[in-house]
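WARN no homologs supplied; continuing
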Amino acid sequence: MPLLSADPAAFPADPPWDLDDVASIAAQDWSAFSTLTEMTDHWSRPGWPDGARAYYWMLTFPDASALSGLASRCQEALAPLGLDPVPAEDGLHTTLARVGGRDVVTPEQLTSLTRTAGQLLPSAFTLRAVPLAGSRGAVRFSVSPWGPLVRLHAALVQAGRAEGIAPSKRTALFRPHLSIAYNNRRRDARPVVSAVASLRSLPTVGVSVADVQLVELRRDGVTYRWDVMESLPLTAPDFAAQVRP
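OK structure emitted
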């Protein structure tokens, strides 16, 4: 598995010491978020204005009622802060990798990419939304374990390279997360950190990840929307191999 590297531009800058340890992942995310003094405007992104579109690999959770319920509960508690909530019923997602803009990637390349990726995908797994935390521009769940997500990211990057589509980010710099609200202005981070801290004791929820989506993602005001181009199944877990003698 590719090792994750420290990167001052990533959040958190340092990856957790154990990619499959829930406590390590949650502690690393919270340590980075809880020490922020200022949050930035998530929507102030050069090259990604309102109406922009591009192709991405993502995990989407349209039928994860427990996850959407937990997100909604947290969003209601955070409402006084004036953040932009992610639509809990049909907007929750984990971004894996950018493929490219519609003006760069052709339909033929997308077809070849999905065919190649389908031959490289790792096993299905269960993802857990562990305690709420955040970043410079969002409030988000930490997710665990990272190991299957890193393997999935590496497979998608390998497929892109095989088809001549340069990856936007190396796997070593990947930081998985699941945002529930975006910050929309520069602000003092401390009130947000305090509000998030009060929600960290909520029970975690799990969601089965059995496929990965290639989507055409678009920014629609202060919301992300997408159309699924392809949904590729992950391979079946080898449960026999997991049984210790």
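The helical segments are 22-34, 65-78, 107-118, 147-162, 190-197, 239-242.
OK
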